Each structure stands twice: as C-alpha cells, then as structure tokens.
C-alpha cells in the first residue's frame, strides 16, 4: 500500500474545511440569498432572491428566476430593457441595508475597532450592546471559527434582529457566537471567569459604570475599546479609567471618510461625507496589584515663570502689530462703504417712486 503524504492530506483538509459562511460567498446566485442590483444611473437596491417573484420598479420588472443560477457579476435586463449589474453585497453594503432596530456601527468605525482593538483570530471577546448586530458581524469575522464572541444585549427585540442579521450573512448560526440578555456589568462576571477575556468592546451610554466588570474579566494586557457618541461620554469614561488605576492611559480619536468624484478630468472630493459618527477610546488592563502611571503633561500657564510669560508676546510669535492710525483709517473706510451702499439704495428707491431731487 502506498503511504499518504501527511502534508498533502493536511493541505486537502484545509481546502475542504472553509471558514463558516465562506461557501455562501462563492459560486452562482442561489435562492434565498441577498443580491445587490445597480442600475445604469448607479442607484443600488438589495433584494432577496425568491423563486417565482419579481423585482418591480417604475421601469418595469425583473424576474428573480432570471438571476438564480447566474454567476456573480452578471448583467441582466428587466422586461423593458432596463439593465442591472448584479453582485453580492459587500459587508459594508450589507450593514447599511440590513434590517435594524438601533443605529449601527458604521463600517469605518468597525474597521478601526478591529484594527486598533487588535481583534485577532482565536481571540476571546465580549461586547455590549449588540444593537442590530453590525459590529458583531465584523467581530465574528475577525475572531474566526476558533475564536469566541459573547455579546450582551438588554433588549430582546434587538437581540432577535442581530441574530437574524448574523445568520443571514454567515448562512446560519456562527459557531463562535453566544448572545445573552441582561445588563453587561451583572451578566459578564456571572458567565465569564476572571481574567479569561482578551478583548472587551463596549457600545453603550455609560461605559464608566462597567469598570469593575471589565477589570474582572479582562486578562492582563487585554484591550478595552469603547465607542461613544458624545464628548461628555468620552470625557467621563476617560476620567473614570484614570481614577480607577487598573488600566493604561486611555487614547481617543475619531475617523472621518470623504469619498471622491471620479469622472474624466473632473476629479474632486464629494460634496457629502461620512463625518462624525462616534468617538473611539482604547485602554489596556494592567497586571493585578499594579497602579497605572500618571503621565507627565505639559505645564499649564500658571506653572511658567513670570519672565516666561513676559516673553510670550504677539511679536514673539510672529504676529504683526497694527497701528492706531491704520485702525482708524480702516474704520473710516468701512463706514464710507456702508454709507455709499445706503446712498445708492436710497437713490434707487427715490427713482422708483419718481421723487428724484432736481438739480
């Protein structure tokens, strides 16, 4: 009998053991999956392929059966000749078009959370709250089948929506995902062992209320990343982390994405952009018994000597002084301009009423 090369067998096993949900992203369109249709003007609509039904618009209809079995990237026509480009939605497309019960974490922020939070394959992660499941999908893709994501949500209806969205994009339940109902700070310490979690991701109104729970379950060196909407939340969370002493100095930022218009030589920024959506703040758990460092900061104004303050003059920083004479002349010029405009307006009004003065 011929011996089987273990390396060849391992390679074959890897090819057949695809990550969960990967098979649904390949091959021809199948009934029940979502397809993104783009018309000739660039307008996009997402439909769920259902045999025997049709997609209707003011420009005719397109039978779903026309798409089922076609390769991804096909061009199809409606009954009146309207052309559509058919592709599977990308994750960013899916998140913005999926059913939602709460505001979603935008793709630009989810990408930052995955990268700056160092979410890696096999990591053990907890998150709260789940909302509509947008961030959960990104986290599951990052941790993979061998990882672990435990999501906490207070509202059952949100959990149901998130569950449906996750199962839609992964073509079924994900083996690494667990979702629980209840308050995060109570449930996480009851369900997760101390120091057993690698990463904590919180998207909630008051993350500072979860300090003890996060410090309990997060392993030394683990990352805690917060997504908050307002400056007040950001400030209060940062000060609570500093006062607690079990974490490193927090680091915060926001990201903005501006698209570009590309058409021939008309290459310019888009007039609209995805600007502020939320703030991200990251900190790390220190070892037990260690107190976080108080970072040395620049001295405030009161810490400077008087001679330093005396040297801090407008001229010293390159600001050109303006003489009183020039200021008076500028004031006269401004008044003269205003008076001239008034005179012209009055003359136009008099002419309209036939009351011009005689010369």
Task: Summarize the topology.
Blueprint: H1 6-16, E1 34-38, E2 44-48, E3 54-57, E4 60-63, H2 64-67, E5 75-77, E6 83-87, H3 91-97, H4 107-116, E7 124-128, H5 134-143, E8 148-153, H6 156-169, E9 177-181, H7 184-191, E10 197-202, H8 211-217, E11 218-228, H9 231-244, E12 251-253, E13 260-263, E14 266-269, E15 279-284, H10 306-311, H11 324-352
Parallel strand pairs: 7-8, 7-10, 8-9, 10-11
Antiparallel strand pairs: 1-2, 1-6, 3-4, 5-6, 11-15, 12-15, 13-14
Structure description:
Residues 350-359 have a biased composition (Basic and acidic residues). One of its GO terms (biological process) is tRNA methylation. The chain has 359 residues and is an alpha/beta fold. The protein has 3 domains: 20-89, Vcp-like ATPase, Chain A, domain 2 (Roll); 94-284, Vaccinia Virus protein VP39 (Rossmann fold, 3-Layer(aba) Sandwich); 300-351, no CATH class. Helices cover 33% and strands 21% of the residues. It has 11 helices and 15 strands. The chain has helices at residues 6-16, 64-67, 91-97, 107-116, 134-143, 156-169, 184-191, 211-217, 231-244, 306-311, 324-352; strands at residues 34-38, 44-48, 54-57, 60-63, 75-77, 83-87, 124-128, 148-153, 177-181, 197-202, 218-228, 251-253, 260-263, 266-269, 279-284. The strands form 4 sheets. Strands 9-8-7-10-11-15-12 form a 7-stranded mixed β-sheet, sandwiched between helices. The longest helix is centred in the C-terminal third of the chain and has 29 residues, at 324-352. The protein is flat and about 75 Å long. The relative contact order is 0.08. The model is unreliable at 9-15 and 333-338 (pLDDT under 50).
